[in-house]
# Entry
Amino acid sequence: MTYVLAIALGLVAGVLAGMFGVGGGILFVPTLVVLGLGPHEATGTSLLAIVPTVVVGTWRQSSYGNVRWRGALVIGVVAAAAAQGGVALAEALSDATLRKLFAGLLVLVAAQIAWRARHADR
Amino acid sequence: MRLVLIGLVAGFFSALFGVGGGVVIVPLLLLFCGWQARAAAATSLAAIGITAVSGVIAYTLHGDVRVGYAALVGVPAAVSVAGATALQQRLRIHTIELLFAAFLLGVAVWLFVK
# Structure
């Protein structure tokens, strides 16, 4: 039953990846934790699960001409390097407060995107 | 230059909060660079590919990658992402953006209660 749920959540993660350009880790990590993996194992395993998801997603998106390769290369390489610094800092800071601040920031960003979508004449 | 900044913020926040880089990359490409939703989502996926491979290498060295479990969730996702991409291509831009705003709200709520 848990495995059926994991496959179903995998399918949902792929829909989020195709629709919104996120990797799916936001669903993979909690799913893997439910399956019994520890937090580090869940993160590492989620990253591996993201690879086939984004490879297929990028391949399909590129067939529609939507991928800007130079931008992807710059963002991806810089983000991979910055993640190393983020991990070091994550261990130094208490994360509950930061997480709530980030959640608040996302609400503002969501409102801004919705406003733009309503008012842009496209 | 803006793209370098986006990469920095995305890598930093994803490590800090355990959210994928996409939750950061896509809004910044939309609002900070003025890209439209399809190009932002597509380019974000390609960028995440690079960070994910780099992360997999690091976690593999620590023995924290379980290939079978990755396939259990990753293979279904790789199947449905193709259909979702085709659907996204048919939706109007502002529909995609409104749905994305709703998704971000959901992420915010989840981060808040987690």
User: Anything to note?
Assistant: The two ends of chain A are 45 Å apart (CA to CA). DSSP finds five helices and no strands in chain A.
